[in-house]
Amino acid sequence: MRNQNAERIQEVIAYIEAHLHEKTDLNGIAKGVHYSKYHLHRMFTDTVGITLHDYVQRRQLTEAARLLVCSDKPVLEIALTAGFESQQAFTDRFKAMYKQPPAKYREGKRFYPLQLPCSLNRNMSHSGGLQKGISYVRAEDIPDWMRFAALVIDGFPGFEEKEHLEQLLEHTANSEALLLRDAGVVVGAAACSKAAGSIDFLGIHPQYRRLEAAGLLLDFMLRNLLFQDAITITTFREGDRADTGQRRLYQELGFSGAELLTEFGYPVQRLTLEVR
Known about the structure:
Layout: H1 2-18, H2 26-33, H3 37-48, H4 52-70, H5 75-81, H6 87-98, H7 102-108, E1 134-136, H8 142-151, H9 161-173, E2 177-182, E3 185-193, E4 198-204, H10 213-224, E5 230-236, H11 246-252, E6 256-263, E7 266-274
Antiparallel strand pairs: 1-2, 2-3, 3-4, 5-7, 6-7
Helix pairs in contact: 1-3, 4-5, 5-6
């Protein structure tokens, strides 16, 4: 059933991408893909991890952010293109998600996405467990890692691809980066600093966040890489509307709140986990 739902939702995602610059809602999408809106809502949320409404709006805001940085189009035109009925409504939502108004974001000239098109695994494995799929990242794995990072980018505010790649190369050289695969498909990734006792990246494919994939990666790091009494990780602050569940994922692993920080101009919080 999971694989069948993934197939259906991938078709829905393709429909959303084709109509991204239109005023799109659950009713319209359900009609366009010929599903009951109630069934579509349940199936989409269960598979992708966020509601269809939130997914669409995050995709539209992402493309609006791209236009703000990469074009000279007026903010009103961008707002209407993103499916908003007024510039004020667009500005309010954009500020809630990007933590600054559109005009200031444009001045910064640094685009980063809230949500890229979701790509689902249509052949999820149901046997053998995921533990056997953990491996250290090698140079030839880096393209797979970067594609996966784009898939889970919603969990990492202010994500910059160039800087992330530089850090990944360093983690790979130090045997501090891990991939979790299911039948060859990357479904989890983690990178840590053994010296600092920090987890610098821990991302899980939306379809696998209920399958203890994060716990498997954390356990592997604690047994093989991280030997401090406490380890840290950084994520969204409590109540951040841009958070699609990353903070809760870490808290379910046992992390608790520590100091508030600002990274790359974005308000975040460091969490800690006592391990001894």
